[in-house]
Amino acid sequence: MYQPDAIALFTALGEDLIITANEGDARDYDTFSEEARVDDLVLDPVAFPNFRELQQETNLGRLEVTTVNGISSADVFTVNLSGEQEVPDAVTTEATGDAVLRLNEAGTALTYNIKLEGIDVGSFFGTPQTDDTGDDLQALHFNNADSGQNGPVAFGILNPTQEDELEVNYNPDGSVTLVGAWEVSDTANQPLTDFVDVLRAAENGAEVPLYLNVETEEFPAGEIRGQLTETTAYSEIYAYGARSFTIWDTDGNIIFDSGTELEAITAEAFPEFFNSDNDENTFETRSDAKGPEPEGVVVGEINGKPYGFIGLERVGGIAVYDLTNPTQPEFIQYINERDFTVEAQLEDGSTNPAVGDLGPEGLLFIAAEDSPNGEPLLVVANEVSGTTSIFGINIEVETLPDTAPIYEIQGEGHISPFLGATVTTSGIVTAVDSNGFYVQDPTGDGNPGFLTN
């Protein structure tokens, strides 16, 4: 719901409502515009147990989000493992690793998710190994010391005498992820309770006197290591700029937002020109900006029902919705008079008149009683093509039965098919109280009955 560009008022179900067209893009001067990629954020591993999958570049890692809220209150730590951190001498190696750890609220478990690259763990888990034995894992453990110092083993994750219960995942890129927990009940050289206060007292960005160390056949003292660092983690992530339309009540509460629906509609209509700009026929030019860019919105009443018309400035066209049920607007039609088979501009840079309408900016609804032809009209001003379009609106009037059975009025879904309409029914009055009276259909609900014994 970012950057509302147009606002319209309407009434549905007896309530005054507001609809906005949201361009959907953050700007540098806005205090809510600090954008980050998901793969640059540290996600709370409890809130996001699949955080590594989310942070893959092929998934949500490509999404830029605005993280103004949702900071986790948990004690979360990160580790970056490398040979450069080994002491007393740095190790030259291509092996790397990273980890996210979380101390639970009770202080009884430090969960960890460790990803190792260039380390062969097959000897521990009976999985195929590489011919090079130098990278064979010999031990993986927590050590107690500050950065730049060597310290004793506090708890062994993988070693010949102590082995934690682990979930092991082999990744397509050849890396391996180890998931487990150091618990107060685990056998350890130093119990977790010795470190709980230190972990909780750590400020954001501060290192604690615990590090992970990975020992291999070639480097038995340690090939890669990394210090635990307290980190701001996120239990929720927000993406402002839904490129949507939103319906609000007069108290400012959102009762509906279309989310990605407008982009889904335009993608289906013009898959080869999805998110084109309004001056060129290109694929996804606007995907990293405002997408179709909902620019204008107007509401008109037709046959007693409110309809919303949302103009999409970039790819062009008008999306039409039935707003009778404002919590679940019904998509009616998407119409776009732009011709993608011709270039949007001529060689001299002027707009090609054959392209049709480009850049719908302003919308005006004319009710049937005010229309010169007695039918409702929609007038659209297109700023890029310099054209004005007038659309006639022809919506069939649903003919209601003289009387409708109670079960048809109620329907089988959450919403009555007669929502917003006036209907006549008949039945048997079965009860009367302070709330009114209760009517039952003598034929039941119209569905077949079943007998069981």
Counted by DSSP, the helix tally is: 5
User: Which structural class is indicated by helix and strand composition?
Assistant: mainly beta
Please write the string of helix (H) and strand (E) elements. EEEHEEEEHEEEEHEEEEHEEEEEEEHEE
Could you tell me the radius of gyration in angstroms? 31 Å
Counted up, domains total: 3
Percent strand equals 25-35%
Total number of strands: 24
Largest sheet: 9 strands, antiparallel
Oligomer: single chain
Describe the structure in your own words:
Keywords: Hydrolase. It is an enzyme of class 3 (hydrolase). There is one protein chain. A hairpin with a 7-residue loop joins β12 (207-216) and β13. Mean pLDDT is 83; it is low at 29-34 and 448-453. The strands form six sheets. Strands 9-8-12-13-5-6-7-11-10 form a nine-stranded antiparallel β-sheet. The protein has 453 residues and is mainly β. It has helices at residues 51-54, 122-125, 193-201, 261-269, 406-410, and strands spanning 4-12, 15-22, 35-37, 64-66, 75-81, 96-103, 109-117, 137-143, 153-158, 167-170, 176-183, 207-216, 224-231, 245-249, 254-257, 294-302, 305-312, 318-322, 330-335, 360-366, 377-382, 387-392, 428-433, 436-440.
